Amino acid sequence: MDDIISSQDEKNQLLSLRERKKRLVQTTIEETALQLFQQKGYEQTSIQDIADAVMMSTRTFFRYFASKEEVLFGPMHAAMTDAISSLQRVAPTESPQKALRATFLYLAGLYQLRRDSFLIRYQVAAQTPSIASLYLYALLEKEPAICDALCSHLESATNRDEIRFPVAIFMTTFLVAAAEWLKHEAQEDLVVLLGGYLERLSSLSPM
To answer: Where do the HTH tetR-type domain residues begin and end (predicted)?
Structure first.
């Protein structure tokens, strides 16, 4: 029995080591790509340029990222996915509005923790007409996932069509706050900034 436990521990340690190595390579690719985007421009930087800079083949690059766009927007999607998962920590008896408030404040906290990374990505996107409008609005793709998470977790979220409206309102409020935050080079605390917007929102209608 002890041998089985020891073997499993070794496997877990090996997997953990592999994950750490994978994340280290991903981080190196991201940081290098962002530097190239800033120096040469997003559209002028090829995947080959990135691969050459980190001394790997393009084939190896594609093991970590599907495209340049994923390098640029990946952290946004990852943060949103994490925020959606955080809904599971909300009491099932909570109202959709309070659950959404907690979720988007949590998302704002994730952005605040990686402010430098998000700011650089915003600046790169802002200089690239073909992707400028996608930087913030890429998050809108997650609206259906938020609706699904609410409907599957909250007792009061029984009508998906009705849930879409408050989700859209909270998403838009977050986008407005994030746009202002980034416009001012992320000098403010996004959690505080979003909280202020949500307070103004609650004064218009019961939350």
So the answer is: 23-83
Q: For residues 136-152, b (16+ Cβ closer than 10 Å) or e, as one string? A: bebbeebeeebbebbbe
User: In angstroms, rounded to a whole number, what is the distance separating the alpha carbons of residues 113 and 109?
Assistant: 6
Structure confidence by residue, pLDDT tens digits, 111-128: 999 999 999 999 998 888
Structure tokens at 27: 């981080």
Q: Is residue 63 pLDDT above 80, yes or no?
A: yes
Mean of the per-residue pLDDT values of the chain = 88
Q: Hey, what domains does the chain have and what are their CATH numbers? A: 1-65 (1.10.10.60), 67-207 (1.10.357.10)
Long-range contacts of 137-142 (CB under 8 A, 24+ apart): 137/175, 138/73, 138/76, 138/77, 139/76, 139/80, 139/171, 139/174, 139/175, 140/171, 141/77, 142/77, 142/80, 142/81, 142/84
